[in-house]
Amino acid sequence: MRRPIDPVDTIWLNMDRANNLMVIESLMTCADPIDRERFLEVLRTRVLDRFPVFSQRPVSSRMPLAMPHWEDVPDFDPGAHVRQFTLPPPGGDGALQDHVNGFISTPLPRDRPLWEMHLIDGYDGGSALYSRLHHSMADGIALTRVLLSMTDAEPDGVPAEDDLGESRHAGPLGAAAHLVGSAAGTARSALLDLPHVLSPSFAEDAFTLTRQTTGIATKLTFTRNPATAVAGTAGVRKRAVWAPPIPLRDVIAAGHRTGTTVNDVLVAALAGAVSSYLRTHDGVALDVPTMVPVNVRPLDEPLPRELGNRFALVLFSLPSGLDTPFARLAETKRRMDAIKDSPEAMLTFGLIRGIGRTGKDVERYLVDFFANKASGVTTNVPGPQGPRYLAGSRITSMLGWAPESGNQTLGTCIFTYDGHVHVGFKVDLDTIGHPEELLDAFGAEIDALLHLAKAG
């Protein structure tokens, strides 16, 4: 079977470069060893049988301006995409990070389906699943849902249609995903409701939207990623690191006591970590912009068989230039609220779709133009609230990093799962040579915010 690759998916197929691969990296750790045969059966029934792209490869058209297409791989063998490894003793986080970092800069071969998974034994008495999935297959939120569809609420359970552990929001700006749908719906309704169009309230809303749109266009055009210790020319060498889990109840308490949200606290902690790193290496801290993906796919509907990319990006400036944890938290909340109340996600969703209808060279220029306005990509995903099981083994942690484009150098993953917050960074080693300092600073900022909340 052959089918055209969607123009938006083609963007990410064309954006693969040695210094920034379009590969979504995902990691699950498990308390017990994973049985390979049981895992392969789960993979076959819940992923391969449902989503054809996992058994298809991309093929370029022979016509100069024609779109590429997905093509079935003859005699597809899923076992060839699931590799088995064993960590050297004692098999802790250091050994697992060494394994991940041995592959994180390796492109996925184009002559086969664009994914692979590693079943890794010997991790802390259990195992780990390291997945590498190409962005052209689907966006990160969709692929997170695909991976979670392999999990169960019980060790021997069979998932119901609504029991796939799917996150209800795309991250710190998850509400903006719903804003896209509601804003589009309002526009359609207005076209059919002439009295509403003529009303003063509609004129006021239209004026506000026009003013917001102008401001967003200015922001997207003129924002610059300042020259700092976390900005530079992206190289090939990447490194992923992560910290011990943080109890979610502490973050919730800090949010309640300061009148902010869990997302505000976590993003403010990221701003504090970046601030600390810049003060150490630059002597001064500045605000650093990052891109945040926003899901625009209805999360209460099943994923389509063809998957694909349906997401927007918003540009968020971390208030890392401010001096105190409280100032950073207050400003994080103010900036988050402003974006949630704006049509930025709706506008960038349309922009991405427009870029997908240009030629390869124009795509690359436009993607680089916007990507280079940010230090990298930040994802903050509220995952399953209770424990999940993969092929009968209890999952102990989850992490996942979105790809970077252009010269982006700092990828941040914040993943909330089963009462804990898991934080990890994927950095460009040519620019950010000490990623462990970011982890330490993130934990210190969380502690400072907790003490601040208790004192308040």
Secondary structure: elements and pairs:
Blueprint: E1 2-4, H1 7-14, E2 23-30, H2 36-48, E3 56-59, E4 69-72, E5 82-86, H3 93-101, E6 115-123, E7 126-134, H4 140-148, E8 151-152, H5 174-192, H6 194-198, H7 200-222, E9 238-242, E10 246-247, H8 248-258, H9 262-281, E11 288-295, E12 311-318, H10 325-340, H11 344-355, H12 360-371, E13 378-382, E14 389-390, E15 393-401, E16 410-417, E17 420-428, H13 435-455
Parallel strand pairs: 5-6, 13-16
Antiparallel strand pairs: 1-4, 2-7, 2-15, 3-4, 6-7, 8-14, 9-17, 10-17, 11-12, 14-15, 16-17
Helix pairs in contact: 8-9, 8-13, 9-10, 9-13
Task: Describe the model.
With 456 residues, the protein is α+β, with helices and mostly antiparallel strands. It has 2 domains: 2-152, Chloramphenicol Acetyltransferase, CATH 3.30.559.10; 174-384 and 400-455, Chloramphenicol Acetyltransferase. It is 39% helix and 22% strand. The chain has 13 helices and 17 strands. The strands form 4 sheets. A 7-stranded mixed sheet has the order 5-6-7-2-15-14-8, with helices on both faces. Strands 9, 10, 13, 16 and 17 form a 5-stranded mixed sheet that branches. β16 (410-417) and β17 (420-428) form a beta hairpin. α8 packs across α9, α8 (248-258) packs across α13 (435-455) and α9 (262-281) crosses α13. The chain is globular, with a radius of gyration of 22 Å.
